[in-house]
Write the structure tokens for this entry.
Amino acid sequence: MSDNQETDALLAKGLEMMDKVYGPGVAEMVTETAHLPFPGETVRHQFAEIWSRPGLSIRDRRLLVFGATAMLGRSDLIEIQVLGALRNGELDDEQLEEVALHLAYYAGWGNATAVWRGIQAAKKRFAEEQAKKS
């Protein structure tokens, strides 16, 4: 397999995994910029090679990302992950509330507040998506 074929195969695998992680159609937003170094390597390495590894489910990996992202205090990044979890049916409202509370003791109350805000924003967006489908 040539380097270009291998790169194309990793790109396709990564885009497929992005849709599995965040929901159908998400990969389409990245396809346009996948030829650039940063987004391309994110898709080919992070999603095709890391998120696709056996041993942990997507849900397991997402919970790890929740913890790491909580330490950053980034509600916007939590929102993206929670929206993916809701689209995939990985976590329900009660479990998401537990995530915020549990992380408060490990990431600090201020960071957990950002987590909670991201959860609330994702739940609102998901409800809006569901309403549009009805």
In short: Residues 14 and 49 are 8 Å apart (CA to CA). The mean pLDDT is 94. The chain has two domains: 3-50, 58-133. The radius of gyration is 16 Å.
